[in-house]
Amino acid sequence: MPKRVDHAERRTEIARALVRAAGRQGLHAVGMRDVAAEAGVSLRLVQYYFESKEKLLLFGLRHLADRFGERVAARVRAAGDDPGPRAVIEALLMAALPVDEESRLFHHLYTSYAVLSVTDEALAAQPFIKDPDAAETTLAGLLRQAADTGLLRAGTDIHAEAVGLLAMSAGLGTSVLVGQRDADSAKAVLRYHLDRIFRG
Amino acid sequence: MPKRVDHAERRTEIARALVRAAGRQGLHAVGMRDVAAEAGVSLRLVQYYFESKEKLLLFGLRHLADRFGERVAARVRAAGDDPGPRAVIEALLMAALPVDEESRLFHHLYTSYAVLSVTDEALAAQPFIKDPDAAETTLAGLLRQAADTGLLRAGTDIHAEAVGLLAMSAGLGTSVLVGQRDADSAKAVLRYHLDRIFRG
DNA sequence: ACGAAAATGGTACGGCTGTATCATAAAAAA
DNA sequence: TTTTTTATGATACAGCCGTACCATTTTCGT
């Protein structure tokens, strides 16, 4: 039949253009025409691959979440061959901080989506925003593993620590993003709290 | 000369309409006409009191920050006649959580402004977003006071704890806002971490 | 009273938005 | 080669946006 173009790949390409444009102008200010121009295609093509803007936004969010997942996994892998729980946890939490351009972009857009989800029920229904965070389960699992190996201080509430650390990491990330704090200071705070949990 | 209307009060009134409309539709979706309708005045009047939309947004942010400051102060006052540092700190941190409609609104819009400030330098220059948080100084002061009275565990890094607690409170607030977590669970996590810092 | 300044209303303009329509180029299947 | 489906392009439309302009009412200083 037609020119045989890989739809999935093309959609991803357009989603990447959306992310780039949104990083420059802010998600609220990016229109279909901006995405088309950024991707170097015609407006009609963007409409063809995503019937509506809402579909494009939803796909963009999924794309972003996927890329973030890969990023975290890569960081964890890079933490060493057989890293202890502490190193894995540190890699996990640090990966969420906006230290370089890519993570800044991610944090910026993910927060944009979160804000939109407050008033947009289609976005709010997306699992990345709605579900009890998968990161929480992962982190709690790592902490339990550390506790079972006797690495943690006695009396540590694993669930409360997991939730608290994730919230802290997210909050620190936001303050770094808006320029209230620099990345190194945020890292130092996170490390202090890990030192506090793991017995010296 | 003219009808002698209190400008400051009228501007505040319009800013409150902005906040209400933004809470309903999202800050990104609210226009001058929405603000005018919400305030029950003509579009021209909104333009008259704020020459441009940007000025309106800036004033709205200041208004929001002021209201939040008052809210926190009220909560702290309500904490008791001569409350200990622990009670004051708890009131401080809890006040930031989106537990009722007013605090949800505040958290929602403040986050919206934070996102906008990433790509809007006029917003980024606003002290509420740019400055080293005043809350951090306050909280650190309270913690120091507690430490001097021997209420804290030994080896507590006051600065790291202050920064961490604030970031955690903000992060928890966001996850409550987007429906990832309920307010009670967020409160419980915060209390756990206060218990951890204050010696039992 | 009168004029001037302040406050308010009505409305129009240019530009941008997302979407729909019409047309056509490309390529695989027959 | 013809047909048929997919992919792409150009353009138009209705609606909303922030802003500007023109007019008018209101009220205070003189």
UniProtKB/TrEMBL annotation, chains A, B:
Domain of life: Bacteria
Keyword DNA-binding found: yes
InterPro entries named in the record: BetI_C (IPR039538), Homeodomain-like_sf (IPR009057), HTH-type_TetR-like_transc_reg (IPR050109), HTH_TetR (IPR001647), Tet_transcr_reg_TetR-rel_C_sf (IPR036271)
Domain HTH tetR-type: 8-68
SUPFAM superfamilies assigned to the protein according to its UniProt record, in alphabetical order: Homeodomain-like, Tetracyclin repressor-like, C-terminal domain
Pfam families for this protein: TetR_C_6, TetR_N
Gene Ontology molecular-function annotations: DNA-binding transcription factor activity; transcription cis-regulatory region binding
Keyword field: DNA-binding, Repressor, Transcription, Transcription regulation
Location of the DNA-binding region in this protein: 31-50
Keyword Repressor recorded: yes
PROSITE patterns: HTH_TETR_2 (PS50977)
Coiled-coil zones: none
UniProt name for this protein: TetR family transcriptional regulator
Organism: Streptomyces griseorubiginosus
